[in-house]
Amino acid sequence: MGVLEGKAAFVTGGGRGIGRGHCLHLARQGAAVVVNDLDPEAAAAVVEEIDQDGGRAVSNSSDISTREGARSLVEQCVSEFGAVHAVVNNAGNVQDRSFLKMTDDEFMSVVRVHQCGTFMCSQEAALRMRDQASGGAIVNTVSAAHFGNFGQTNYAGSKGAIASMTYTWALELARYGIRVNAISPSGTTRMSATYKGPDGKDIELPFIDPTQNGAAVAFLCSEHAVGISGQIFGTGNDRIAILEHPAYGTAIHREGGWSTEELAEKFDGYLKARLEPIGIMKSPYPFHDGVRPPGN
Ligand SMILES: NC(=O)c1ccc[n+]([C@@H]2O[C@H](COP(=O)([O-])OP(=O)(O)OC[C@H]3O[C@@H](n4cnc5c(N)ncnc54)[C@H](O)[C@@H]3O)[C@@H](O)[C@H]2O)c1
User: Fold this and answer.
1) Which ligand 1 atom sits closest to the C-alpha of 94?
2) 63 close to ligand 1 (CB < 6 Angstrom)
3) What pTM value is reported for the model?
4) pLDDT tens digits for 122-155?
5) DSSP labels for 8-52?
6) For residue 18, how far is its CA from the centre of ligand 1 (angstroms)?
7) How far is the CA of 195 from the centre of ligand 1 (A)?
8) Is 88 helix (H, G, I), strand (E, B) or coil?
9) What architecture does CATH give domain 8-242?
10) Model confidence over 60-115: pLDDT tens digits?
11) Relative to the CA of 142, which ligand 1 atom is closest?
12) Where does CATH 3.40.50.720 sit in the chain?
C-alpha cells in the first residue's frame, strides 16, 4: 500500500517534463491525481499512463495563471475525488531576455504563470483544506535561478518570490495543519533545453531524468513529512539537498550607528573581503576590481 492511499492531489503543468514525474509518483503511492496542463493532449497522455499502471487520474486543461483556472482545478479535484489533500505547483514557462531588452509582456507572462499561478492555486486549495479540516500539503517549485541568472529577470524574480511565499505560508497555514514546502528540481525537459550559461551563451547539459523529483514530492505530501514545513529541497539528479534560507551573515556593529565615512573605512578593511558570491554558479565575488562605466 502506498503512502498516499485515500488522498487527492493535483499537479499543475503535469503533462510533461518534471510535472509528469510528480503525477506518476503520486499515483503510484495511491493518490488520486488531477493532471493539469494547458496542453490537453499531454495531460491526457499522463492520465492514460497512470490508468495503465493501475492508478486513478483525470485530466484538466485550465490555465492556472488565472483565478478561474485555479478555482476550476480545485473544484474538479473535489468533484472527482471528494477533497484536496495535496497541491503541487509545478507549471512553468520561460521568456528569457537580458534585463535592458525585456518587455513588459515578457516579464508579466512569466510572473503570471509562476508567481501568480502558485499564489492562486495555493489559495484556492488552502481555503478548501481549511474548510475540510483535513490539513494538507502544498509543494511549490523554485529554481536555483533565483540566486540570480543571466537573462532571467522574470523567471529568477518569480522563483525568489515563490521561495518567500513558501516561508510565509508555512507560518500562516500551520494552524490548519497545512504544510508548505518547495523543491528546486532538476531534469532534462523542454524548458531545460533553453538554459544558457552564466555568460548568456548556450550550454550542453548532460541528461538528467526529470521524473526522479517526483519521489521527493510524494514524500513531502505524505505523513512521513508531518514535521516538515517552510523548507526547500534541491531534488533530482540522484540527490536531495536542503536549500539554506537567506540569512544575515557577517555583521559589524557600532553603538549609535555608522557614519558614511566610518563605514567606508571599515568596509574596505573588513567587509569587502567577505562579500557574497552571486548567481546560479556561485563563483567567488566577481567584482573586486570595481564595476565602472566603460572606458574607466
Ligand atoms: N527542468 C529543470 O531543470 C528545472 C530546473 C529548475 C526548476 N524547474 C521548474 O520545474 C517546473 C517544471 O518545468 P519543466 O522543466 O518540466 O518544464 P516543461 O516546459 O517541460 O513543462 C512545464 C509544463 O507546464 C505547462 N504549463 C505552462 N503554463 C501553464 C499554465 N498557465 N497552466 C497550466 N499548465 C501550464 C506546460 O504546458 C508544460 O507542460 C517549472 O516550474 C520550472 O520552472 C525546472
Assistant:
1) 43
2) yes
3) 0.97
4) 999 999 999 999 999 999 999 999 999 999 999 9
5) EEEETTTTSHHHHHHHHHHHHTT-EEEEE-SSHHHHHHHHHHHHH
6) 7
7) 13
8) strand
9) 3-Layer(aba) Sandwich (3.40)
10) 999 999 999 999 999 999 999 999 999 999 999 999 999 999 999 999 999 999 99
11) 7
12) 8-242
